Amino acid sequence: MSEKPTPKPKAQLDAEFSELYRAHLRDVYSYAYYRVGNHHDAEDLTEQTFLQAYRHFERAQRESRGRPLRPWLIRIAHNLAANHYRDRSRRPASSIDDTQPITAPHTTEQLVEGREELGRILDGVRRLPDDRREALIMRFALGMDNREIARALDRSDGAAKVLIHRAIKQLQEMLDEDASGALLAESAHGNSTDAAREDLGAHERTPGR
Amino acid sequence: MNEALPNFELLLREALAPVEPPADLVERVEGALEAITELAAGELEAWELSAMRDPRNWARPAAALVAGGAAGTALVLLRARRRAQRTPRHGLRATRFEQAAERALKDLAEETRKQTRKLLDRR
């Protein structure tokens, strides 16, 4: 016969929840922002995540057996975001509101190039399948390790590792394809411009016209 | 691009830089959490009204009052810290934190006084 654990006093639970909230507000907001693609929905999602977390905090603490609760928080946000899209049958906003500012010093030219490159990467992340996109957000925006990501996505550690590897690979391939597509388009555009120029030249050179 | 995986990961880290939550969101979430705590206190009051007829339960609301006051403390202190963070002027930060904490403790004392008065009125 197992004895039920004595519940913690509410004061202690509240204090611990406040700690959790302070420690992970930025994580939850960052996840929400990259997940939904705009600040407005990200704010709603963050608020709902913490309210739901507060309601189930005691049980989560009991069941976590001392493990960090960040994956649990992110999982709540993940489920809420999934419900949000399921209910409204919509995908994340067409593009992320704005590219994050680059903090390292750059020349203006480098800054513009850097922003463009980061913009292309963000756009690529947005086009990935949901689970791959989320794994990348957790790894790179939140700095979560494979174990944490596995817990947040309810997978094994190995599956999380493979998921991240595949997500990075697919993203690189997409960006490579985009880059070669752009080169092709540019060269096709260049060719047609040259041809037009030649036509125009021939036209201009045609005697008697 | 494929050859330079670590560089690509660095770029990914830069592209997916963490996003600071806006200040009004902090207010909003903390406000909502405080409202929930107050709601819980409201439920406790409803229980008290029915239970106070039994003298065996008289000790319980008093304990709940203490616990409730302490429960609010976490959120009140959180608010105090936030007030202090809003005033990052050099040299004044510590003083301002003390002032904010003092204000927060006054809020807490006032709330405890109200709760005690309510309990005494009911007897």
CATH class of the largest domain in chain A: Mainly Alpha
Number of beta strands of chain B:
0
Overall morphology of chain B: rod-shaped
CATH architecture of the largest domain in chain A: Orthogonal Bundle
CATH topology of the largest domain in chain A: Arc Repressor Mutant, subunit A
Write the element-wise H/E pattern of chain A from the N-terminal end onward.
HHHHHHH
- The fraction of residues assigned to DSSP E strands of chain B is under 5%
State the helical fraction of chain B. Answer: over 70%
Q: Helicity of chain A, in percent?
A: over 70%
Summarize the structure in words.
The complex is a heterodimer of chains A (209) and B (123). Chain A is an all-alpha fold. Chain A has 2 domains: 8-97, Orthogonal Bundle (Rna Polymerase Sigma Factor, Chain: A), CATH 1.10.1740; 113-209, Orthogonal Bundle (Arc Repressor Mutant, subunit A), CATH 1.10.10.10. Helices cover 77% and strands 0% of the residues of chain A. Chain A has helices spanning 10-36, 39-64, 70-88, 108-127, 130-141, 146-153, 157-205. In chain A, helix 1 (10-36) packs across helix 3, helix 3 (70-88) crosses helix 6 (146-153) and helix 6 crosses helix 7. Mean pLDDT of chain A is 80; it is low at 99-108 and 199-209. Chain B is an all-alpha fold. Chain B has one domain (22-122). Chain B contains 4 helices and no strands. Chain B has helices at 5-15, 23-51, 59-85, 93-122. Chain B starts with a helix and ends with a helix. Classes of the chains: A mainly alpha (209), B mainly alpha (123). The interface between A and B is large, with 45 and 36 residues.
